[in-house]
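Reader question, answered in our methods column.
A reader sent in the components of a multi-part assembly and asked whether the whole thing could be modeled at once rather than chain by chain. We filled in our standard form and ran it. Here is what they sent:
COMPLEX SIZE: two components
ENTRIES:
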Amino acid sequence: MALTTASAQVVPEHPGRRSPAARKRRGSGSGRHREGVAGYVFLSPWLLGLMGITAIPMLLSLYLSFTDYSVFSTWEDVEWIGLENYVTMFTNDPSFVRSVLVTLVYALVMVPLKLAAALAVALLLNRAWRGVGLFRGLFYLPSLLGGSVALALVWSALFAGDGAVNEFLSFFGITGKAWVNDPDYALGTLIILGIWQFGAPMVIFLAGLKQVPVELYEAASVDGASPWRQFWHVTMPMLSPVLFFNLVLETIRGFQSFTSAFVISNGNGGPVDSTLLYTLYLYKRGFTEFDMGYASALAWVFLLAIGILTVVLFSTGRFWVHYADGEDR
Amino acid sequence: MHPATHPENALSARSHRTPGYGRVLRGLAATAVALPLIFGAAACGNDDGGSSDPNAPVELSVFWWGDDSRAETTKKVLAAYHDAHPNVTFVSTFQGNQGYLDKLSTQAAGGNAPDIFQLDDNMLSELAERKVTLDLTPYVEDKSLDLTKFPESLAKYGVVEEKQAGVALAENTPGLIYNKTKLAELGVAEPATGITWEAFIAWAKDVSTKSGGRLPGTMDPSADYKALWVWLRQQGKEFYNGKELGFTAEDLTAWFELWKGARDSGATPTADVIHEGNSSDASKQLVVTGKAATSWVWSNQLSALSKSTKDQLGLMAYPGDPKGQWARASMYWSGSAKTKHPDVVADVINYFVNDAAAAKTLGIERGITPNLDLRKEVEATLTDVNQKTSLTFETEITPKFGAAPTPPPKGHAAVRTLLVTIAETVQYGKATPAQAAQDFITQAKSKLA
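And here is the structure of the entire assembly that came back:
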């Protein structure tokens, strides 16, 4: 949505834009009704999917979070235990606390660095070089592979005690760590893997940069502003809606990371729970320990936490996100 | 079988009432026709437990984990069964170990578990206590699923809550696999079954010293539940006492201390290398990757591990009195409690464990043949020297076995991964043995509750 606002000021108003309103004025009541029914009919595949695949299972998991439910239980065996899962989680589950800490460190370190990397590369690639398209493609590549298991496997091989990274370091006389096998460094390795996949926010930054009106830079140069000042006083404010969009999206994504930790730690969150991301802990409880009820409770706490975090981010947005078209949001 | 008997009974009953010659003849003729029917049905009855129509088409789904070679032999046996019983067809699926249980549990949750599936003792109670597995007890009792040729403790090791939840497809025992080639190069004598734990650690330290620290003597098994279990049994304890832990924090502290001493003396590699070895993946075992001279694995894995290294490997029992060991099922076949053809399921399982041709096809890839009579026949067909060693090892240790414990209870999967995490806190020096042991006991109790 931030994107549309950014583009609205540059793209001239489309002549056809007024027509839906006009049509609405013309349409009679019954026609409108028929249109509404037709709308729902066209919507139905999606609506059925939403109900069947998302809404109903979600509500079911909310119910299950108040029960002692294993994957194998039949409906008769599901035992209602009230808030017990939630109480255990907050009072008597060291692994829960551990996984929250690991996830916070992971997301709070990874997301800002990833956005910084994405912005820096986007600024470099925003110039009219020969072959810049190729570079854009290359930098985007890791994101395409992002969720893939193969990439995480390669990563764990690179960062093993006798992996390529340590071999490279040994050229400079540095004795590397055991990285993924060392509880003090394993999470750092995951964070680097996360940062490396900055392609998606980079592309969005690039699009945002293209929308900054050239006149603003021209005016700034006339006033004698240095490139640095231009960056802070023209680029950043104009880009802030895009930055905000990326920040929200990447934060949510960061908290939801799973694949790399799962693959690198063999599904165990090791060594010594150092890579026990929240989602991995949830998976472990649900699928290797069969506590589906407890895992459902974990999922709902997670949903609430991410929701609250997003609300907080939005409320800070008022203070630093600049919408050039002056629309009050 | 019963429908076939009825016409014959009816006819002979009538022939008693009216003893006309022609009727007697007709009765005899009917009997002559009926008898093969009866025997035929009875013969089929042995095979599929006498379902109403023995020739009705039956389709069974079969699911296991393993590699391609396991898939090949398993499918061969299924095909042979199909040849003998053309009405029974199989839909077989297999995959790697990782994710196997996820898939099985999801299918079971949806009420469509495969008719026959492979389990091991880490999962057996987990599924049996939740009534996912078929109760095979009646078939074992009427010997249509014949376990009389099994070592008694091996048959019992498939019993959960007094029900036969699984039938051992193969037997194996924890085994230490060591690198013969490297030991010969270093001039260190090979260790032998019966060595004490202390002597074994001293031996491992000797290997480390003689190799100048390049080859630590042994992997540190303190995170390995099976090593801990054998050690506990030798102390007169058990890993589980019914559905509770069979040992105390003091026992576990002593176990952690034992291996802390070994690590400090240099008998084992460092914690990060041990972490690699804590993976259950055969190709990552330190004896294969050359990062330790000994790995703590299973007796039937000698052949599999040998494929990943050029060096020659040797096999011995875990240290201490072999009485701590027992005839353990390496894997089971279990049936689904919801199968529509329980009789056929039992018969297929029976075929896998009691048919000579099937046993020879399967070889000892999953572990040693469970049927003692067939074990000798299979032995004669083995050509791989490592497989022969595994089998000889198992034969020699069998008379020394102690009584089998019950299979681990529900919650074992969680306890097992907990032990890895907790033992690693000691290995990385993040906790003292006593602290870690206390943490383990507290958390394990909630996992078993």
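What stands out: Chain A has 15 helices and two strands. Chain A touches chain B at residues 70-73, 92, 94-95, 160-161, 178, 181-183, 266-273, 284, 287-290 (CB under 8 Å).
Send us your own complexes using the same form.
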